[in-house]
Specification:
The protein contains 7 helices and 20 strands. By secondary structure, it is an alpha+beta fold. The strands form 8 sheets. A 4-stranded mixed β-sheet has the order 1-10-9-17, covered by helices on one side. It has a 3-stranded mixed β-sheet with strand order 4-7-18, with no helix packed on it. Mean pLDDT is 79; it is low at 1-36 and 254-268.
């Protein structure tokens, strides 16, 4: 069955991440009934709760998306105990690419990498982190951008931060109205650092936000009643704070309108073996037979390489499943492996989508030359 390039990109993107919000031609939408959407709401304005204890690092709040209810929901900012001495938090961010808004998950690492140029505040002003630093095995907090009680926490300093970034509440990179920042060469190097995925406390914190109707953008109108918490999941803590105001007027469910809500969506796979074969793009037709043949060979080569990578990852993951079975691993160990497998699978598909998009863009540029 012939599937257009835009729909193919959609199917891949849904596999890649927990959410993909696509902007596609009306004719394509009618065929599969998928959401037409723009980026997430603006970041709400809120105060930072006091740091609960030494060693906790600030992780800013962000808008996530629940496909089951076709709505964004706010994951409150919170203080999180660093999983390892010397590690810092790189926030997650939404970015436009290939006709889709994709969410890039945050991570822990020795340096703060690229996070879309989004100004989350409290030390995260679009590039790097000005909220504190590690000195040997202690974290020192910059009090000019953090709410720290010096009676309880003595590792502090005061450094004025000069923020040259235009202050706005935009919550995504690229697309119509998005932040135009691109990663620096240093941030690109940081991307190759050793990283740790969000820890269990952060995952549970996000799940609690997802299950709370008050966090939904359609309910809170971009102004969540719980904007930040002193610890992960502490939604009812006295120190939890509400948003003072929405970052911009909320435009309602038109941001995520679904013409057909009963059309099934492809599930996010947990393992590489669950991935469906990649749909082959239509044959190139630039009007230049030699150029078309060249592009077709490039498509064939890329498809073969991607399929080989799928099979290699599937075999590796199956081997790990068998090891768990032989070891009679407990449920916690199984869940940890499944989480890693899902992340591996999503990252592989994301890379494949990007490769396909780059080849298509190259073909389009070449087809425009006469």
């Amino acid at each position: 069955m012939h599937i257009t390039s835009s729909i193919r990109s959609l199917l891949f993107a849904v596999i890649v991440l927990t959410l993909v919000v696509l902007t596609m031609p009306t004719a394509s939408v009618a065929q599969i009934g998928i959401a037409i959407s723009i980026g997430p709401p603006a970041l709400p304005v809120y105060e930072q709760p006091p740091c609960p204890a030494e060693g906790y690092l600030w992780t800013p709040g962000y808008w996530a998306y629940d496909y089951d209810i076709s709505d964004y929901y706010w994951v409150p900012g919170t203080w999180v105990l660093a999983p390892q001495v010397g590690f810092l938090w790189t926030p997650g961010w939404w970015g436009w690419g290939g006709g889709a808004f994709l969410f890039h998950e945050g991570y822990w690492g020795p340096h703060v990498g690229f996070y879309g140029g989004i100004s989350y505040g409290f030390g995260y002003f679009g590039n790097g982190y000005e909220g504190g630093r590690w000195d040997h095995d202690h974290f020192y907090y910059n009090r000019t951008v953090n709410n720290v009680n010096v009676t309880n926490i003595h590792n502090t300093y005061n450094t004025t931060v000069i923020n040259n970034t235009t202050v706005n509440r935009v919550s995504y990179n690229g697309g119509n109205g998005g932040i135009s920042a691109r990663p620096t060469s240093e941030e690109e190097r940081f991307a190759n650092d050793r990283h740790i995925a969000p820890i269990a406390a952060q995952t549970e914190h996000a799940q609690a936000a997802r299950s709370n109707p008050q966090m939904r953008a359609s309910v809170n109108q971009g102004r969540p009643s719980i904007a930040a918490t002193p610890r992960p999941g502490a939604f009812n803590d006295r120190a939890a704070v509400p948003a003072r105001e929405a970052g911009a007027p909320y435009r309602g469910n038109a941001q995520a309108a679904r013409p057909e809500n009963n059309v099934p969506r492809p599930p996010t796979p947990n393992d590489a073996k669950e991935l469906q074969p990649h749909t082959r793009p239509p044959a190139p037709n630039t009007g230049n037979p030699k150029l078309d043949q060249k592009y077709q060979r490039q498509q064939d080569k890329m498809a073969a390489q991607q399929e080989q990578q799928h099979q290699k990852l599937a075999a590796q993951q199956e081997k790990e499943h068998q090891q768990l079975a032989r070891q009679n691993a407990n449920e916690a160990a199984r869940q940890q492996v499944e989480q890693r497998h899902q992340q591996q699978t999503q990252q592989l598909e994301q890379r494949h989508v990007q490769q396909q998009q780059q080849l298509q863009e190259k073909q389009q540029r070449g087809g425009g030359r006469k």
